[in-house]
Amino acid sequence: MNVREARSNTSIWVIDPSSDVDAMEVKEAGAMLASGRLVAFPTETVYGLGADARNTDAVTRIFQAKGRPSDNPLIVHLHNVSQVESIAEHIPPLAHRLMERFWPGPLTVVVPVKPGIISERVTAGLNTVALRIPNHPVALALLREAGCPVAAPSANLSGRPSPTEASHVIHDLEGKIDGVVDGGPAQVGLESTVVEVRGDHIIVLRPGGITLDQLNDVSDNVTMEGAEASAPRSPGMKYRHYAPQGALTLVQGEAGERVQWIQRQIDEAKARGKLTGVLAFAEHEALYEADLVLSLGSKSHPEQAAHLLFRRLRKLDEHQIDYIWVESPSETGIGVALLNRLVKAAEGNVVRI
Ligand code: TXA
Ligand code: MG
Q1: How far is the CA of 343 from the centre of ligand 2 (A)?
Q2: 236 lines ligand 1 (CB under 6 A)
């Protein structure tokens, strides 16, 4: 039994990504997307909440279901590079090289949009559109079945940690959307890297699953848009994001002193009757005495922390932890994206010991 009709009107289909992608359930979910309904689906980064990108009513429902500000544009998901030509006004040569190199994969490329095809709700009135082909067998099969470009933000309530499992989507959106395709946990665990190109220059609007080093293989000229830029070109970057309910402090500094400092904060909070939590690298996990200590994997494998971060933040919420301290990752490889999400989750509450 692969389908269960939940208490609400949200259908839930369970699909095994290694064998089931031709299943009837995928066809049914694809047909729902094509008929203007909202279906959440797995990608290699996080779960997305999909709707036909040409259908303004459907796209409007995405914003309503998530409580998302309407000036924050959506990524359009495709299954084939040949679809790009019908959506992009033109494809700059460097953008084309990036697509060839990293698609399917966790890279989103912003290109000039052809007027009149994609709903203006998707682009939030900008003259560009963000495109990506996800590297996930279930997502690709679903997009093929839907047969339309699919606008899909992360399938969480706005401001909450992004969903890396179907249960996270169900928790946030059950009853507000038409279906969820459950294809198991997302591998990468952080969202795609969003880039724009200008001539031979790659501008990173949001760090993510494709690292700066990987982009550097394609062009020497890669820059990160300053997080403090007054008008960020990736509009979503200015909003509160990823935050757990407890107050999160991101702690940088040398390992030993950091453990001592965090433990002092824990002891003080406990004395005030508060529930305390720590996200620590596996090497330090046993050194803390808090109400909940969760591992981010080995500090020498930041991709483990990327995979785990959002589900750990949700776990802290389940336990109603009041104060959370997080060991800051080093800023290399996917650590750049991890740090970006953690600084946002901390709402600027970053301490260097
Ligand atoms: O990995 C991902 O990218 C996931 C999965 C579902 O594909 N999607 C995702 O979507 O993270 P969302 O909506 O949570 O984030 C999209 C980001 C936002 O920061 C948004 O502002 C930016 O992409 N964006 C979308 N269209 C843009 C455009 N035309 N120009 C600049 N930034 C854009
Ligand atoms: Mg999001």
Answers
A1: 15
A2: yes
